[in-house]
Structures are given as structure tokens and as C-alpha cells.
Design brief:
alpha/beta, 12 strands, about 20% strand, elongated
């Protein structure tokens, strides 16, 4: 009996050590929605037998760090929220094409920085852009939506607003929705957000946009302030600024009042900023 208890205790200890090791070597990195990148860090060491050959040891350490960074990046990418309903992990499980494209992008990436550290380890940093014409996550994330038919933007509920001078004479360059300070909590960034009015009608989503523009620019930028560089560069010098009244669908989709939604749609008919994805969400 004592022997059995000792074996059981040894097994539990082994399991705990495995869990600790798994935690210690969990994927390092994060999604930076403001900068629009997925960042991963990898650490590697060379074989002890090559300690007397610094050049070979460093080369091995860098190779190991690159492999570690790729593994970490792949794990972080799986957790990226594509829409309120799906993550990249969901899409990869549903589509071999998506999974294969993600793997190819990761394997083809070059490090944005690397350094040999004083403790004898090598550090490599990889960054995958969320959007862009080449080797961005959007190339894989939007594959399932590529063949969906494009849908026109809806008409304003109150159609009389379409010709109001106060709306159409402003020459708006973009849209900024301020999502701060809502009782629902903080905005949850996603790659494919939807803007809704307070009746639940979608007024902006990927179905309204050209596929190539989504891949190149993304549907929206995320910023911390209305006047910061992200907002200015995306929404231009004369944006239409509205305040969200709520958040829906895991706090991923901003909700604006029906009056503001009508103003957005009417202004867009004149200035076409939604078609150009000139949209910023302040979180």
C-alpha cells in the first residue's frame, strides 16, 4: 500500500511539474490593436557542447528562438477575435485553407528584432500585421467571406436627413465613434466589427465593403483618444464624431442612436468615407 501511495504521489508531482513547465513556457506576446499587429517573442539557447564555438552556438540559439517565436505567434493568432462570433482558432478548425495560409505566413516571416542576451540566450521578436496587402492575418481571416455578395449600405430610417445641408455640406473625411465610458464596459476589438443602430440594424459591416479594401486597410482602427495620431491618420482632418450609446455582441460592436446612424448613412452617401474604411473606434 505504501508503495502504491508513493507511486501515486510521484505521479501527482510529475503532473504538477508538467503544468508548471507549461505555464512557464506559455506563449509570449500579444495583439496590439492600436498598432495593428500580433507580436510574439521567442527565446532560444544553443547546445552546451558548442559553448566553445561562440559563432555556432549563437546561430543555434537564434534558430531555436525563431522556432519558439513562431510557435508562440501561432498560439497567439488562434486567440485573435475575428468577429463577435468567431476567433482564428474557430476558422482554422473549420477550414484547411485558412489554417494552411496562417502557417505559410508565419513560416515566411522575418524577425523585426533579435538580440543575443547576457545570459547566453537569444531573443527574437516577430510581428504579423493584422491587415495589409501581403503576409497579413487578414489574408487568412477573411478567406471564408471572400465569395459573399456585397450588400449596399442601408438607407437612413428618417430619409429626410439625406438632403439636409448640415449633414451633406460638411465634407466629412471619416467616422470616429467614441466608445468610452459606457455602462456595458470596454470595447472588445475585433477584425470584423459591425456598427448598429439602437434598433439592432447593422449599418456597417464587411458585407458592405470591397474585399480588397478590407484586406489592405482593415475595417477600422482602434485608438485611445479622438485626437491622437491613429484617429487623425485614419479618419482625416474633418471626421464625423458620434458617441456610442451601447456595445453589443461580447462588446465587440458599437451601437449608436438611430439619429446618429441616420446622420452617418446620409453623410456617407455624400462623402463615401465608409466605403474607404475611414472608421475609428475610440476605446
Amino acid at each position: 500500500m505504501n508503495f502504491q501511495w508513493k507511486c501515486a504521489a510521484s505521479l501527482v508531482a510529475a503532473i504538477m511539474m508538467t503544468l508548471l513547465a507549461t505555464t512557464a513556457f506559455a506563449a509570449e506576446g500579444a495583439v496590439d490593436w492600436n498598432k495593428g499587429v500580433v507580436r510574439a517573442v521567442g527565446i532560444g539557447v544553443g547546445k552546451a557542447a558548442y559553448k566553445n564555438n561562440p559563432g555556432l552556438y549563437r546561430a543555434q540559439a537564434k534558430r531555436a528562438a525563431m522556432m519558439d517565436a513562431q510557435r508562440n505567434l501561432a498560439e497567439i493568432v488562434k486567440g485573435v477575435q475575428v468577429s463577435s462570433e468567431s476567433t482564428m482558432r474557430d476558422l482554422e478548425l473549420e477550414s484547411d485553407i485558412v489554417r494552411t495560409r496562417v502557417d505559410a505566413i508565419i513560416k515566411g516571416m522575418s524577425e523585426v528584432s533579435s538580440q543575443y542576451l547576457s545570459d547566453g540566450t537569444y531573443e527574437v521578436v516577430l510581428e504579423m500585421p493584422l491587415f495589409g496587402a501581403k503576409d497579413s492575418l487578414s489574408e487568412a481571416a477573411f478567406i471564408p467571406f471572400k465569395d459573399e455578395p456585397k450588400v449596399s449600405f442601408p438607407q437612413p430610417v428618417n430619409t429626410t436627413i439625406i438632403n439636409q445641408p448640415t449633414v451633406i455640406n460638411n465634407n466629412y473625411t471619416g467616422l470616429i465613434i467614441d466608445c468610452r465610458g459606457l455602462s456595458a464596459g470596454a470595447l472588445n476589438p475585433v477584425m470584423s466589427p459591425v456598427i448598429k443602430n439602437d434598433n439592432g440594424q447593422a449599418i456597417y459591416g464587411h458585407k458592405n465593403l470591397d474585399y480588397d479594401k478590407i484586406i489592405l486597410n482593415g475595417m477600422a482602427s482602434y485608438a485611445d483618444d479622438i485626437s491622437d495620431q491613429i484617429s487623425r491618420s485614419r479618419a482625416g482632418n474633418n471626421p464625423l464624431v458620434v458617441k456610442a450609446v451601447n456595445l453589443s455582441d461580447i462588446n465587440a460592436n458599437p451601437v449608436v442612436s438611430t439619429a446618429d446612424a441616420d446622420k452617418i448613412l446620409a453623410a456617407n452617401q455624400h462623402d463615401r468615407f465608409l466605403e474607404n474604411c475611414a472608421v475609428v473606434f475610440v476605446k
